[in-house]
Amino acid sequence: MKRFALPIILFLASLLAGCTVAPLVRGSKLQEDAAPINGLVVQIFAGELGQFENLNSTEITSYRTAFATAFSTRFPEILKANGLTVPVTQVYLGTPPNSLPFQIPTANASHQLILLMTGIRYSTRGGSKDGYAGVLFKARLIETSTKKVVWTSSPSLTLHPHQPNRQTEHFAASIINGLAEAKLIKLGGQFAMDLKGEPIHYSTMLHADK
């Protein structure tokens, strides 16, 4: 048992320091000749979590309030910090629509990013939720001139009720890194940056919000 002590200690130390793995959601580029993004309209259909079992009132309230605010403020701020022009960001709560809307707000943007909440995911122990739930989304990137979907992905958001800004940054970074991997945007560095110009990495649940 003693020979495993040092690796375990180093592993726990890395968790406390914050993991250096950058968030990334690999998507599907549906149009190989799709033009790079030049201006992005963002529409987030955040939905409602009250109907899901095993979520407590703190998580549900935080999603309706703090996370909704982070969607409308921190999410576009991270996009802009990574070189994207975001003239419009709209956040909708309540029951998601049955189909993705294609009505694009008037704006100087080459693409529209639609994020539609589709459900939640969590692990269980003894029949109860263990840890923080993940809120699942379906992402669609639409070329405004042709109304064609050119990229899709399935990002998820960690529902840590005391880290709305931090987790929204991770959520945004995973999408940004995916768009960069598909060559739809070009980053200044290897990974998406935060508002201080530092790479956004996965961090532990022990960190304070940003």
Describe the structure concisely.
This protein is α/β, with parallel strands linked by helices and about 210 residues long. Helix content is about 25%, strand content about 25%.
Features of the shown structure:
single chain, alpha/beta, Double Stranded RNA Binding Domain, 7 strands, 26% helix, 27% strand
Provide an overview of this structure.
26% of the residues lie in helices and 27% in strands. It has 210 residues and is an alpha/beta fold. It has a domain at 40-181: Double Stranded RNA Binding Domain (2-Layer Sandwich). Strands 1, 2, 3, 4, 5, 6 and 7 form a seven-stranded mixed sheet that branches. The radius of gyration is 18 Å and the shape is globular. The chain starts with a helix and ends in a 29-residue tail after the last helix. Residues 1-19 have low confidence and may be disordered.
